[in-house]
Amino acid sequence: MTNILSMIARLHVGEKIMMKKIFLCILMVLCGLLVFSLASSCCARTLSENEYLSLRKKMVDEQIEARGIKDKNVLEAMRKVERHRFVPKDICHLAYGDHPLPIGEGQTISQPYIVALMTEVIRPNRSMRVLEIGTGSGYQAAVLAELCDDVYTIEIIEKLGIQAQKILSELYKNVHVKIGDGYKGWPEAAPFDAIIVTCAPASVPQPLADQLKEEGKMVIPVGKAGVQHLVILTKTKGRLIAREILPVRFVPMVNSKGEKY
Ligand code: SAH
Q1: The CATH number of the domain where 180 resides is what?
Q2: Is 183 in the pocket of ligand 1 (CB under 6 A)?
Q3: What is the whole-number distance in angstroms between the Cα of residue 176 and the centre of ligand 1?
Q4: CB of 253 closer than 8 Å to CB of 199
Q5: Most buried among 172, 193, 202, 240, using CB within 10 Å?
């Protein structure tokens, strides 16, 4: 430090002015960088409702409609439901990205396209009573609530179920949340016109098959980690006719002890 000061003292007036200018320039660049990084981190976390709305429209155009989802009502519901309200606050600026997101307790909210696809394949309409297994954040249930008369949804992790119940009850009157093991379905509310399963068992749970109405559809990821397929099952004359649609990766369906089905 003293070396630098004595070096500065030996400089001519012109050189000192030049040094001052260089020093000021460096200071301004550093301040600029600081302001920019602060501003961008704040904006990333507190977008306005208008910004969220345009992100949501972009999500539907680029990730959902562009990939072939056609049902106008499903597209409308995906434009309407505020996905950023269903993810943890510190990552809500990422809510409209083309990927799943962590929601706590080691669980995830599905990629928006998968939510739209699973909703479209059950051919939702107003008169339907739908069961969802794996409430998670409550987002899929909210999309269903926009389209169907009654939505029943079961979550096995109490903390997630309580959180989802809170936000869903603020927004909808037609969603019923239960904390429990969805493998067993919801016999008191059965039969269902459609069942959407958002966690993966190794094979289709018999109680869910039994609780599906004739001509009803179930969409379910089946298989062990790494090799799951999204399957659509249609109940025809009491039997389930299966059609595989695509390979997927969902969290496993587990029982109350955390063991995989
Ligand atoms: N549909 C959710 C995503 C769910 S992730 C959403 O829109 O956010 C899958 C969820 O299934 C997890 O929350 C997990 O806890 C739950 N789950 C796993 N096994 C279950 C079971 N047997 N019954 C009910 N929920 C189960």
Answers
A1: 3.40.50.150
A2: yes
A3: 15
A4: yes
A5: 193
